[in-house]
Amino acid sequence: MFEDKRFEYDVYGRLVRKLSGHGPAKELVLEYDDWNQLKTVVTKDRLGIATTHFEYDAFGRRIRKFNGSYASTDFLWDGMRLVQETYHDRQGEEALTYLYEANSYVPLARIDQGKPAANDADARDAVYYFHNDVSGLPEELTDAGGDLVWQARYKVWGNAVQEEWVAQVPLRPTATWGEVSVVAPTPTHVPRPQNLRFQGQYLDRETGLHYNTFRFYDPDIGRFITQDPIGLNGGVSLYQYASNSLTWIDPLGLMVLYRSMSLDEYGGLMKSGRWNINGSMEEKWFAESYQDAVKWGNTMGHGEGAVRVVQVDVPDDIAGKMHKDPHLDGIGPARYAEIEDLNNPRSRVTWSKEVNYSGCR
C-alpha cells in the first residue's frame, strides 16, 4: 500500500492488480504471457471497463497495442529506440516519427504525418522540437516557428501533474497604428498526445503505466511492475528504476555499466571500435554507477586532469555471468568483464562524458 494505492503481486513477483483512490476506486487487472511480458490490462473506473492488449516481436519489443475493437497503434523500432508509431482509429491513420540525439535516447524532434485539408490536396507534415530537462524528460514542444505548442510539469518520478497543448491564437494588425490585436481563434487540428517520458519510456494513457522496453514502469511509485530479468545481478532492489531520476536513466529496464578510462584508452576504443587488452589484463572493471566510475577515475589518476567515463549497455546473459565485487577499492559495486564479452556485438557503448577535476595524478 502507498498513499491511496494498493497493490497485489503473484508468486512470480509480477503486479497483477492495482487499486487507486478512495471510495469508487480505479482498478487495473494485469495479465502476462509465458515470457513475463505484459499481455492484457483491464481498466475499471466510473466510466466503465476498457481492455488493452499488447503484442511483441522476437526481440521483446512491443510492436502493437489494441484498445478495444476500434483502435490500435503500431510501433516501429531502430534497434531499441522507438522511431515511429502509427495510429489507427475512427479518425483514420496517422504516423508520428521520432528523431533522437546521436547514440542516445534523448528525443530531438517529432514529425507528424500531414493530412490534406478540405480545400487543399497537399498534405504538410508538422515538425515539433523537444525541450527536455537534464534527465532527458520532455518539458516542452515548439513548432517550426519557435512557438510553444505543448508543455508539461512532472513529479520527481515522471508522473505528469499538468500537461496541455497550447492553443495558437491568430494575430492581426489594427487599421490605425499597426498594433497587434487578438482575434477569435479558429478550430484547428489537435495533435496526437505527446507520450515520451523518461529516456526509453512511453506513456500508455489507457493504464497510466510507462512502457520501458523490457518492463513497465509505474510513475505513481517510481518502480517497475515486474522484477529485473537478471535478478539480483541487477542490484538488491528488483523493482528499482534508478537511484536518482534527475541524473540516472534506465531506457531498457536492464543494467548499464560505467568505466572510467584515460583519454588515450578512449581514443583507441573510438578508433578501432573494439576493447583492447591493456598490459597483462584481459578483463576490465566496470562500476555500476556513474558516480563510482568518476571516483575510480580520480583514484587511478588517468591522464593529466581529465578522464573519460563511458556508459555500456550489456545484455542480461553477459552481465549475469560477470564476477561482482560489492565494494571494490572501498568505493562501490563493480563487475569484471571479459574482453571477449565486451566485444560482443550486443554490448554497446551508448554514451560518454569527459570529466575534469583536480586530484588526477
TrEMBL record:
Pfam families: RHS. This is RHS protein conserved region domain-containing protein. It comes from Burkholderia cepacia. Residues 127-163 form the RHS protein conserved region domain. It comes from the Bacteria. InterPro entries: RHS (IPR001826), Rhs_assc_core (IPR022385), T6SS_VgrG/RHS (IPR050708). Gene3D superfamilies: RHS repeat-associated core.
